[in-house]
Amino acid sequence: MPKRQIFYSFHFDNDVMRVQQVRNIGALEDNQPVSKNDWEEVKKKGDASIKKWIEDNMSYRSCVVVLVGEQTSNRPWVKYEIEKAWNDGKGLLGIYIHNLKCPRNGTCRQGANPFDGFNFKDGSKLSSVVKCYNPKSTDAYNDIKDNLETWVEEAIAARK
To answer: What is the 3 state secondary structure string of the chain?
Structure first.
């Protein structure tokens, strides 16, 4: 399988340490995380700058992976990234990361499925066509590591 370029969507403040674990798996194309300082600079410039940053960073990605923590589904920029990914025809999937241990605060509660917040014109939910995987609670890291490439390929194929 080719290495894919992925855009990761997540709640920075709560989940950055868990997200780093997923990024470090290395199964996919190298994807450098934005630092807290970089993100704060982008946020200071306002909504238009945030949208441009998202568009620039998402533009050449083939798939958007939403890393779902306890509060991810409520985050406005995560919602924007999901809608943009769907409208742009990109592969889209979610992975619950609540069972990955954060060095600061351990594990957290499972968050809501962020795709439940989007409805098609017929009333069906985006979650009916976009998968949100829940890795094994006993070994979430290795479950993600062993399946990430397959999940991404399936999400991309589903959009073709």
So the answer is: CCCCCEEEECCHHHHHHHHHHHHCCCCCCCCCCCCHHHHHHHHHCCHHHHHHHHHHHHCCCCEEEEEECCCHHHCHHHHHHHHHHHHCCCEEEEEECCCCCECCCECCCCCCCHHHHCECCCCCEHHHCCCEECCCCCCHHHHHHHHHHHHHHHHHHHCC
